[in-house]
Write a structure and sequence with these properties.
Length: 232
């Protein structure tokens, strides 16, 4: 899905490509910092204490989510400054790209890098050792991981639109909603290998976030209703 979003909506505009790459870089830096904190915490703790290690894993996931959203906010501030510079340099006093378009492209950048790392981890598991499901575990691991990667890519795109809108209009509850949804989706991963318990709520949240982002982007509630009811 990220490849399709990139090809059809971003690839022809050099400015959008720059914003996407910068967004992916911001997400990568947030992951690097959160991984470093988690690695230090694990090395400083007792590796034999399984309960402690599980607690550190939960802490690492939640801390990573909060750090990603903090970097999303920093990226918004950077893009806001960039818009002011573009307006100052333009002949007609208008920015060549709106904040809504920036929000979308930045969200795709976050989702693209998130999906890339998810696929890297998945391919690393595919190298072995052993065969998935050989000891009675679910054989749907790779399939569900692919679906989860797809939902995260779309969610980051929608979260970017909602988050930037909240920052732009000082609606802090929209920012809080994005953080809560992100924490929820990440926390649902601990339901695995009960994949239904993680995939179904994640896709429901994605549908809600998609509708919300559509309305914030200027979409009509009437058109959304007609789409959901499959009316032309």
């Amino acid at each position: 899905p990220a490849f399709g979003l990139f090809i059809f909506t971003i690839a022809r505009d050099p400015l959008r490509i720059i914003i996407l790459i910068a967004g992916a870089f911001f997400w990568l830096v947030s992951l690097l910092l959160s991984s470093l904190i988690w690695f230090i915490a694990v090395k400083a703790s007792d590796p034999q204490d399984e309960r402690l290690q599980k607690g550190l894993l939960i802490f690492g996931v939640m801390f990573s989510v909060l750090l990603q959203e903090a970097f999303r906010f920093l990226y918004y501030k950077l893009l806001r400054k960039a818009i002011e510079g573009l307006v100052a340099l333009s002949e007609d006093g208008c920015s060549p790209i709106s904040i809504q378009q920036m929000a979308y492209v930045a969200g795709v950048g976050f989702g693209l890098m998130s999906g890339a790392f998810s696929m890297i981890n998945l391919l690393a598991d595919a190298l072995g050792p052993g065969t998935v499901g050989i000891h009675g575990d679910s054989q749907l691991y790779f399939l569900t991981s692919a679906f989860m990667t797809m939902v995260l890519i779309f969610l980051h795109t929608f979260w970017g639109i909602i988050f930037f809108h909240g920052c732009e209009h000082r609606r802090w509850w929209e920012i809080a909603a994005v953080i809560i949804m992100h924490l929820t989706v990440s926390g649902l991963s601990f339901c695995n290998p009960l994949y239904v318990g993680s995939l179904v709520p994640s896709y429901l949240l994605m549908a809600a976030a998609a509708a919300w982002a559509y309305l914030l982007s200027g979409g009509s509630a009437q058109n959304l209703r007609r789409f959901l009811l499959c009316k032309c």
